[in-house]
């Protein structure tokens, strides 16, 4: 069967966005192997950022991830943060993509994430033996790259400027949602009460 995207297809934003939105198990209908082999690391990072954008458009946290097979470069899992969409306290871009990939051998895969991994995701990445992690934003958050390298994972930084501005706008727009996603609701109440006491102190000053 002829696929829609082949080696002649231009890797435009629309084409990459279609890949981001299409369910992973349906991708073979859309992409042939020549097209897939022509996708660069930056293209996979663009897809991760387009998934972050999808989450943002749904009112959620803009973080997305894509997992590829190292040999065939086929996408085997992808997803985005669902804190808001699923009322889910810890489903991040990375965990979402890993759940989509299912019970596979992650040592044959690379994971592209639009934002530097949190402690939970970093732990899962080395416990499941992902061979390579590519990080699209170490400007808005960073810290676990050294830990992942210590655990024997190849870590590459490939910053995506659109992803960086998307996340920094989100953080300014919805600071509470950002804190809740990283540290939970308890951190949010501590943060808000410390803000309140700061403003009381400055009122008294
Ligand atoms: Zn995480």
From TrEMBL:
Q: Per the database record, which ranges form the CMP/dCMP-type deaminase domain? A: 39-155
Top-level taxon of the source organism: Bacteria
Cite the InterPro entries for this sequence. APOBEC/CMP_deaminase_Zn-bd, CMP_dCMP_dom, Cytidine_deaminase-like
What SUPFAM superfamilies does the record point to? Cytidine deaminase-like
Entry keyword Zinc: yes
Instruction: Say yes or no: keyword Zinc present.
Output: yes
Q: Name the Gene Ontology molecular function terms of this record.
A: hydrolase activity; zinc ion binding
Q: What's the protein name?
A: CMP/dCMP deaminase zinc-binding protein
């Amino acid at each position: 069967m002829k696929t829609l995207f082949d080696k002649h297809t231009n890797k435009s934003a629309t084409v990459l966005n279609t890949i981001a939105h299409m369910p992973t198990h349906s991708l073979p209908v859309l992409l042939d192997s020549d097209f897939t082999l022509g996708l660069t690391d930056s293209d996979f990072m663009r897809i991760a950022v387009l998934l972050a954008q999808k989450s943002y458009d749904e009112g959620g946290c803009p973080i997305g991830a894509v997992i590829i097979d190292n040999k065939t470069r086929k996408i085997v899992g992808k997803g985005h943060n669902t804190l808001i969409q699923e009322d889910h306290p810890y489903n991040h871009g990375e965990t979402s993509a890993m759940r989509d990939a299912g019970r596979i051998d992650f040592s044959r895969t690379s994971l592209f994430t639009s934002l530097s991994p949190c402690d939970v995701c970093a732990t899962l990445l080395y416990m499941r033996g992902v061979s390579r992690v590519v990080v699209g934003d170490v400007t808005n958050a960073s810290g676990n790259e050294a830990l992942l390298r210590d655990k024997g994972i190849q870590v590459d930084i490939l910053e995506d400027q659109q992803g960086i501005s998307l996340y920094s706008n989100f953080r300014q727009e919805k600071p509470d949602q950002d804190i809740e996603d990283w540290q939970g609701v308890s951190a949010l109440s501590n943060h808000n009460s410390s803000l309140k006491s700061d403003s009381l102190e400055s009122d008294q000053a």
